[in-house]
Amino acid sequence: MKGKATEIIGSGYDGNSSKLERYHSINPPIYHASTVLFENYAELKATGQGKYDGFTYGTDGSPTQQAFEQAMTELEGGYWTRAFPSGLLAITSTLQAFLQSGDHLLVCNSVYGPVRRFAKNLLARFGVETSYFPADIGAEIESYITPKTRFILLESPGSNTFELQDVPAVVKVARKHNILTAIDNTWATPLFFQPLAHGVDISIHSVTKYISGHSDVLLGSVTITEACYERFHRLCRALEIFASPDACYLALRGLKTLPVRLRQHESAALELAGWLQDEAAVETVLHPALPSHPEHAIWQRDFSGSAGIFSFVLQPQYDEAAVARFVDSLQLFSIGYSWGGFKSLVTAGKFAQSELSRYHDRWMIRLNIGLEDVADLQTDVQQALAKL
Ligand SMILES: *Cc1c(COP(=O)(O)O)cnc(C)c1O
Question: What is the pLDDT of residue 12?
Answer without folding.
Answer: 78
